[in-house]
């Protein structure tokens, strides 16, 4: 009987002394606690208790094989800057600091240590300053969303050197300058471009015409010149929004992909006639208002199903849904 008791005690001690297959490593736990401290111990992270396992019950923390692989700090009263200790979570795949209006500063260089990172969301914060070139060192990154912040300066040309990137999402910032020429030489995927509501300007590099973008949104900037590079009869583009810019080209010369379902060219200086080819498209959204278009709206397809406002404030457009010619 005594032998069984001793054996039971020995096994209990052994079990306690061995690290759990689910508990996070000391290095990851220490990094998380340093991050919490740097963010002034916000209530959002009150579950980050040093006496508990960081892979079990810590808000926003996910683990795989005892390593922290996902960290989400979002929608809370968090103030401060992105802690440099973020770079110590070497196995991170997903990093999300979003909907944090009091998060300030810039993106720390230590983020480049996260060689396995594939999803990076820093959106709806007060991050500012230039988008750093070194973000392109994250070669495994697939999803990048830096929208709705206060970033200034140019779009880094180095973003074209991220081979797995599926979208460049930097809309709703204060970015200036033009689209980098390097965007005419993406090294891997052809990413969707979400550059809307910045202070970007200039002409679009003609070299972009060789790419088949799935979605492009340049709305709410100051781009000029031609927009032909986003169109082509043999492309598979689905959505194009060039609205609220200063584009100036002849619409009738544009060759549209049959795959387009959303086309917004409103509030530009586009001239000419509406091409009959648009009657062949299965459009869900269409707007060419506030341009310099003229002539009869082609009959057929879906062009007559849109509200008159989609054609309003042109020079001399006529025909359904506008007044008869």
Topology:
Layout (H helix, E strand, L loop, with lengths): L1 H16 L8 H13 L22 E4 L2 E8 L5 E2 L12 E5 L4 E2 L14 E3 L6 E3 L12 E3 L4 E4 L13 E3 L4 E4 L14 E3 L4 E5 L11 E3 L4 E4 L13 E3 L4 E2 L14 E3 L6 E2 L12 E3 L4 E5 L19 E3 L7
Parallel strand pairs: 2-4, 3-5, 4-6, 6-8, 7-9, 8-10, 9-11, 10-12, 11-13, 12-14, 13-15, 14-16, 15-17, 16-18, 18-20, 19-21, 21-22
Antiparallel strand pairs: 1-2
Keywords: Leucine-rich repeat, Repeat, Signal
Organism: Arabidopsis thaliana x Arabidopsis arenosa
Main location: other
Brief sketch in words of this structure:
The chain has helices at 2-17, 26-38, and strands at 61-64, 67-74, 80-81, 94-98, 103-104, 119-121, 128-130, 143-145, 150-153, 167-169, 174-177, 192-194, 199-203, 215-217, 222-225, 239-241, 246-247, 262-264, 271-272, 285-287, 292-296, 316-318.
Summarize this structure as a short list of keywords or feature phrases.
elongated; eleven-stranded mixed beta sheet; 24% strand; mainly beta; disordered N terminus; six-stranded parallel beta sheet; single chain; 325 residues; PGIP
Describe this structure in words.
This protein is mostly beta strands and 325 residues long. It has 2 helices and 22 strands. It has an 11-stranded mixed beta sheet, with no helix packed on it. Strand 1 and strand 2 form a beta hairpin. The N terminus is likely disordered.
Spatial extent as radius of gyration: 26 Å
Largest sheet: 11 strands, mixed
Question: Outline, from the CA principal axes?
Answer: elongated
Overall mean pLDDT stands at 92
How would you write the strand order of the largest sheet?
A: 1-2-4-6-8-10-12-14-16-18-20
Category by helix and strand content: mainly beta
Succession of helices and strands: HHEEEEEEEEEEEEEEEEEEEEEE
- Oligomer state equals single chain
Q: Which spans have pLDDT < 50 for at least 5 consecutive residues?
A: 1-21
* Count of DSSP H/I helices: 2
Strand content: 15-25%
Domain Leucine-rich repeat-containing N-terminal plant-type: 26-64
Pfam family, one: LRRNT_2
Keywords: Leucine-rich repeat, Repeat, Signal
Organism: Arabidopsis thaliana x Arabidopsis arenosa
